[in-house]
Design a protein that fits this description.
Elements: H1 2-52, H2 62-74, H3 78-99
Amino acid sequence: MTSQKTILTRLALVAAVSLSAAWVATGAVAQDKTQDQAKDQTQARVQDRTQDQIYGSQLMTQVERNEYRAKMRSMKTSQERDALRLEHHKLMQERAQVKGITLPAEPLARGAGAGIGPGAGVGAGAGMGAGPGAKK
């Protein structure tokens, strides 16, 4: 009887360990999936911001946006870039008119877009009460 009890105890122990390992593995897979989803969402937000920086990007294909960026990068002077922006602005206004869409009359000023990065918020500042009039 003792050997059967020992065998059953060992089987129960092996089953418990196996179930625990399966439970931990399932949690790890779920965590990886959650992290992948968060990464995908972050990439989508970055792509949306990037598209928003090109005037009329919603009227362009991905290929056209890539070509526009490449042309912008190839320009040597700010005057060349300004000329390309003006030409692009006119093209997007025409495209919007044909499609019955209203775009802003003027594109965002350079640097006024949503940019990529943390932006304003809590950071490595002086903190509350550390200004010139702070009590000591």
